[in-house]
Amino acid sequence: MSPGLKSFPPAPIPNPDPVVKATVLAQALPYMRRYAGHTLVVKYGGHAMADGTPDDPFARDVVLLKQVGINPIVVHGGGPQIAHMLKRLGIETRIVDGLRVTDRETMEVVEMVLAGTINKQLVSAINAEGGCAIGLTGKDGGLIEANKLVRTRIGGGIRTEIDLGFVGEPKRIASGVLDTFKQSDIIPVIAPIGVGGSGETYNINADTVAGAVAAAVKATRLLLLTDVAGVLDADKKLISELTVARARQLIGEGVINGGMIPKVETCLEAVEGGVEAAVIVDGRVPHAILLELFTEGAGTLIRAE
User: Fold this and answer.
1) Is residue 274 part of a domain?
2) Residue 31: what pLDDT?
3) What is the SS3 assignment for 70?
4) What is the pLDDT of residue 86?
5) Which of 1, 19, 94, 125 is deepest in the core (most CB within 10 A)?
6) Segments forming the whole domain that contains residue 48
7) What strands, in cross-sheet order, belong to the sheet with 277-282?
8) Pure H helices in 69-118
9) Is 241 domain-assigned?
10) Of the candidates 75, 12, 67, 26, which has an alpha carbon nearest to the alpha carbon of residue 46?
């Protein structure tokens, strides 16, 4: 066991056949060797969390990755949890192009939920499974330098800028901050909050942060855990693998549409930024990470040509 990993009693497993168990482990060995020493960025979406809180299988899987010599970096979302808290506080929510318009009052709630609640719940869940997780936001060590994000619309030949408030996009990722964890037993858990040039706080889409982090650290894999199985074809069947060119073609044909477009575009930007491959996978499935990495795959993998 690595020095930083704590010893905890194993979680109860419903009487597996020892031979089946040993066979599964043996079959996973080539995949473990494939990824040993490599960095993986895992985006854990708010929709993928059971009952709005991190689940034990996810935390256990992340600890297992570290245990077998893989370097996981976790980026988490929290959209549903933010919406719930805003509703409780009676703060009106307005969504434009899938992005939450974030005024100063809303930004305070966003930071409270992401950095103060979900991040610490996830860190605690990983630590409870024997890991050593550290919670971060983009403010820590200047990890995520952000620019204000502005959406534009064109109607009737007139171009209109839409002010989203304190919504940002990554300008620079301080990869050196994350490199300090690579040779340690520490698992960084990142809340998607960035900091502007004048110290202002920005709410950033978690998929976008995960893609930017993956590109900055030249990760072997970017895993987007969400609430869908992956990219579906025109017959609603899962597409197991796509090239960058084919993915762009399917977007142009309208096969990839709606909320799947920004997820695929995040994957494309990550791959074009140096990530070996990106995967969209259903995070609601128990042990989705292990199914994707240590078997023949469970979601949609997007790679270069």
Assistant:
1) yes
2) 80
3) coil
4) 93
5) 125
6) 39-303
7) 132-137, 186-191, 71-76, 39-44, 221-226, 277-282, 300-303, 241-243
8) 79-88, 104-111
9) yes
10) 75
Per the structure, the count of domains in the chain is 1
139 pLDDT higher than 70: yes
Residue 226 bridge partners (DSSP): 282
Distance, in Å, from the CA atom of 219 to the CA atom of 217, rounded to the nearest integer, reads 5
DSSP secondary structure of 237-274: -B--EEEHHHHHHHHHHTSS-TTHHHHHHHHHHHHHTT
Q: Is the pLDDT of residue 55 over 70?
A: no
Residue bearing tokens 């949890």 = 81
Mean pLDDT (the chain, rounded): 88
Looking at the DSSP bridge assignments, the partners of residue 116 are: none
| Coil/strand/helix, residue 4 | coil
* Sequence-separated (6 or more) residues with CB below 8 Å from residue 279: 221, 222, 223, 224, 230, 267, 292, 297, 299, 300, 301, 302
Residue 10 located in a structural domain: no
Residue 255, both tokens: 């096969």
Q: Torsion over CA of 205, 206, 212 and 213, rounded to 10 degrees?
A: 150
CB 65 within 8 A of CB 72: yes
Q: What is the pLDDT of residue 13?
A: 53
List, in order, residues 6 or more apart from 289 with CB less than 8 Å away. Answer: 42, 58, 61, 62, 65, 223, 225, 281
236, part of any domain: yes
